[in-house]
Amino acid sequence: MLIESRPATDPEIAALVAAQQRELREADGGLDGQATVTHSDIRYLAVVVDGRAVACGGIQALDAGTGELKRMYVRPAYRGRGIARQLLVALEELAFRQGHETVCLETGSYLPAAIGLYTSSGYQPIPVYGEYVDNPYSVCFAKRLRVPA
Question: N-acetyltransferase domain: from which residue to which, for each copy (predicted)?
Answer without folding.
Answer: 3-146
